[in-house]
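It is worth pausing here to work through a concrete case rather than discussing structure prediction in the abstract. The textbook approach is simple: state the sequence, then state the predicted structure, then interpret. We follow exactly that order.
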Amino acid sequence: MLQIVEIITRTVQGMTAPMICRADDDRLYVVKGRDALNRGLISEYVCARLGQAFGLPIPDFTVIEMPEELCQYDSDLLRRFCGAPCFASRHLPNLLEFDRQCLTERNSALLQDIFLFDYWIRNDDRHFTSEHGGNPNLLVDPSQQQVYVIDHNLAFANDFDLPAFLATHVGRHAWFARQTDMLRMETYKTRMRQALADCGSLRDPLPTEWLGNDNPAQDDFSAIIKAQLVAFEADDFWVSLQ
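Step two, the predicted structure:
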């Protein structure tokens, strides 16, 4: 497992208060710890793995540890990052936030994929409207005109707000610009099946520290994930997308 060797800075945004850190492979990572809760860390790892297999441009990721000696004089950092594995996403330099200028035909196919993927994993945390903006949790490399997909800690939500998702998701216009006919549906089903097959067991790579429930009374999160990820095989899954 990678070890953090230097804490660089806090990120500008994010409810989970991630830190940019250097690891012992000499690369920079955006690191999330206990503020994301075990459920959020599992969601990040599972969705990053599944999203890459699905074909989304998600930065490379890993599990990482922060040695206590790095934050022994900062009780807040000690509480949030030390003593348990963290989720780390590769920090890519010179990226900009997604804005209205990115809502182009060139990005249409990608936005359709993102829309379906977020619907699949029940992630309604990618809001963006032309009128009011928002935070779609997408980053853009202007030099390569590449969009990167980040932040999945709120996926597999029990309180997934479908009306809000359909009304405000950044990819909604791109998705509904085309009719969801049988061919399109079957093409996506094939991609989703292949992504699941490529990932194999989604539970095996997860740190055992994450698999304990944040609340002993909550449902088995692994069962929630498994049930959600096979839901696309049923016709009901596609009704709201037509």
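Step three, interpretation. The mean pLDDT is 91. The chain has two domains: 2-90, 96-239.
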